[in-house]
């Protein structure tokens, strides 16, 4: 939604106010100035107190004026300024209320002054003075009541009778009979203080009276003591303004600032506040952070409206499940919920009950869909844990958990969390390292074996970290999965490797699954191929083992361009033989875990025998076999014996800058 232009919004506001309150004379300039201030405060997320007061000063001081203002300007401000609108509107209502209160006080003071003056002038013209006071008292738009110091009602005007739904002229007895039971003791004390002279005024901005039917009415109440000049008995003059609409608006604004509009649950900010309070009172708590599996499939497959209905249904089921547990439930993200339990022992057993409750199908547009959730659980968080840190830990755990499957759950371990956080900190620093040059390229020689020929230079990432030291290619690649740098880094690596190795040895870059599926991969590869003849690219099995994968299209096009291709991750992931049979490659590269397991296996064990047969099968089909991580001569001899014909690793040369590769002048 787009906010209406300033002039259109100001005109609409003026029209709505005119319908709510008849104010003589033009007020366009005052309203435009107030609107400009309100919008500026909303963008700055600051209270627009002055704008609220300006509305009252312009003559629009009724609850209806405030209501139409919030209804009209609220959506426009939210669209224009986002959450900052809540702060601005809260300040606006506060300023409005304060200005109305001041007006009430001033009017009450005028009544008091009139009463005193009338009584004084009564010595000369009693009848005229009383007529003036009675007219002002009766015609006052506020509820007015005169009472004795012991709270006996002497006179109440029609406005008060109408407000409290009493027949006119029937309000009598103890003034406290008009007060809500929960407010009576407090107001009894305040009126006693007024009668004793301890205070000269009672001013209650939010209190409750009751109607003749016992319904609560929120009011602003101001009372003062009047002492007649002729020495007659003192009287208390009380002015009452009905602020029920204002009170409800304030509660609505407060609710919207702390609750999710779709489900009615607490939002993330409010949950974090409740969680922090709970953490400060003791550690015997449990926190469950859950994310719905496959919500995106439902949202895109059936439609966003169906997705919203599913979220509302999930919220209702969770509320029902947690009803007897004194739990705090919140929606903390698009498809995320969080639960705070007062007893840690209830945390683990609740996970299965949650998924059982969600498993019952929900019918959406004729489709019976069932939700499931992956859940991260924290039991008895350590003393001093901050709510933000705890939620960050569960979010990281959930991300790792979802990679293992659906309907999973895990306990968030403090030691594991420290490791996850350390990894996340490193990942967050990769863009800066790339920008400053701390992230660079190194090259590992790939040799023809058993002959001495240098066949390729394997392109590796290297990060000279200021505190962690040198991070090798394997660690850099693991961190790339947590960033958005994988694709641009591959393009950068292609360009720089081709430039640094031009005229020497062809570069060989093993792509990640994300990089292999880059829809724009062909362009950078074409440019690199022009600079570095014999370029080789590794395509991982995991990116090719499903049908209609973008990586397969890239592989076919690049093969046609003359790029030499290698199937990487061979021997570990399902589908590797199918890929080898269905697609064209020049070589296969055995997965590092296969090489490591062969090295550690006892002589004569099953795994090395299976690998020997696999290598023989691949070589028989006409493919070269690349083995990495070769650390000693015995390893190299074994692999050469079973048929591997290309190798790299510590025995054959460590990674070096391009200028230090063997045979480079």
Which terms summarize this structure?
665 residues, alpha/beta, Beta-Lactamase, Alpha-Beta Plaits, five-stranded antiparallel β-sheet, 21 strands, 50% helix
List how many beta strands DSSP finds. 21
Strand-pairing-aware structural class: alpha/beta
Characterize the largest beta sheet: strand count, sense, and whether it forms a barrel.
8 strands, mixed, barrel
**Which CATH class of the largest domain applies here?**
Alpha Beta
Tell me the radius of gyration: 38 Å
Q: What name is given to the CATH topology of the largest domain? A: TIM Barrel
Tally of helical segments = 23
Q: Mean pLDDT, as a whole number?
A: 87
Write down the overall geometry.
elongated
Query: How big a fraction of the residues is strand?
Result: 15-25%
CATH architecture of the largest domain: Alpha-Beta Barrel
What's the arrangement of strands in the largest beta sheet?
A: 13-14-16-17-18-19-20-21
Low-confidence stretches: 124-130
* Fraction of residues in H or I helices: 40-55%
Superfamily (CATH H level) name of the largest domain? EAL domain
